[in-house]
């Protein structure tokens, strides 16, 4: 049922685009255009056949400009992929929803962590996290695996927050890098936002960036925390030249991290 709901939602969102394409094809089949002459220009429409791609492309381009104007006021306060569904749509769907359909809000809850960072990099939505938070305050341990030096090519940052991350779940290709493990003390399975955690990560990045500015992120953190990690630490307007590689755990493969990360230049 959930899968059908997601497919139906995507269909409804992108129905205007399908309508434009269908209308353009239908228009090209029933319409002929004569030459139009003006004192300054001559437009030779007669050289275009009914099957010429420009006859289809031009109405599509016109529609792409008209749709945002029509939909802007309707969708202004509406969010794309609301929290009652797992919003693991391809990033292009979010891009089109923003640029062409006028959606302005996105809830980071129920979104894959790499997608959260891609959306934050976009910096065009109104972001929020509707998760329920615990008021409990947690402390964190910092553990170092291998030394960081001038030969370091990447640095792993593993943040065990909402739940513990087993280092054996990291891709084998990334195990050779120096690793900074930041681990919550106490209970797991509880969503909590901690500025102390953000400050610890910030401190580790600031002390290591003189050696390397490429970071692999392996996170078990809620959307609000990820938003602050990106905005407070890595989003420096390309001043520091950070590159982050955000990894996603695969729930179909014993929660091992997938080999291919989402790359973001900050």
Keywords:
12 strands; alpha/beta; globular; 266 residues; 6-stranded mixed β-sheet; 36% helix; two-stranded antiparallel ribbon; 17% strand; 7 helices
The largest β sheet comes out as: 6 strands, mixed
Mean residue pLDDT: 81
Beta strand %: 15-25%
Uncertain spans: 39-44
Span between N and C termini?
38 Å
Element order, helices and strands? HHEEHHEHEEEEHEHEEEE
Number of helices: 7
* Radius of gyration from CA coordinates: 24 Å
The rough form would be described as globular
Using DSSP, what is the number of strands?
12
Structural class: alpha/beta
- Strand order within the widest beta sheet: 5-7-6-8-9-12
* Proportion of residues in helical segments: 25-40%
Sum this structure up briefly.
With 266 residues, this protein is of the alpha/beta class. It has seven helices and twelve strands.
Describe the structure.
The protein has seven helices and twelve strands. The chain has helices at residues 2-13, 15-30, 53-75, 91-99, 113-122, 195-208, 223-234, and strands spanning 36-37, 42-43, 105-107, 126-128, 140-145, 155-160, 179-184, 214-219, 243-246, 249-250, 256-257, 262-265. A hairpin with a 4-residue loop joins β1 and β2 (42-43). α2 packs antiparallel against α3.
């Amino acid at each position: 049922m959930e899968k059908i709901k997601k497919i139906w939602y995507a269909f409804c969102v992108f129905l205007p685009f399908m309508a434009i394409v269908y209308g353009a094809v239908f228009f090209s089949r029933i319409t002929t255009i004569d030459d139009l002459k003006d004192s300054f220009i001559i437009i030779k429409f007669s050289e275009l056949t009914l099957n010429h791609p420009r006859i289809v492309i031009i109405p599509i381009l016109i529609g792409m400009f008209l749709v945002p104007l029509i939909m802007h006021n309707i969708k202004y306060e509406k969010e794309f992929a609301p929290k009652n569904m797992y919003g693991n749509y391809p990033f292009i769907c979010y891009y089109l929803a923003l640029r062409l359909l006028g959606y302005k809000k996105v809830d980071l809850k129920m979104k894959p962590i790499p997608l959260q960072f891609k959306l934050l990099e976009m910096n065009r939505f109104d972001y929020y996290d509707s998760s329920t938070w615990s008021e409990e305050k947690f402390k964190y341990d910092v553990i170092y695996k291998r030394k960081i030096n001038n030969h370091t090519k990447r640095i792993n940052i593993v943040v065990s927050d909402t739940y513990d991350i087993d280092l054996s779940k990291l891709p084998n290709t990334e195990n050779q890098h120096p690793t900074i493990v930041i681990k919550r003390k106490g209970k797991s399975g509880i969503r909590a936002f901690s500025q102390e955690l953000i400050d610890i990560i910030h401190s580790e990045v600031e002390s290591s960036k003189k050696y390397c500015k490429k970071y692999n992120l392996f996170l078990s953190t809620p959307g609000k925390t990820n938003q602050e990690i990106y905005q407070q630490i890595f989003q420096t307007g390309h001043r520091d030249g950070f590159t982050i590689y955000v990894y996603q755990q695969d729930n179909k493969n014993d929660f091992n991290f997938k080999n291919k990360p989402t790359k973001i230049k900050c």
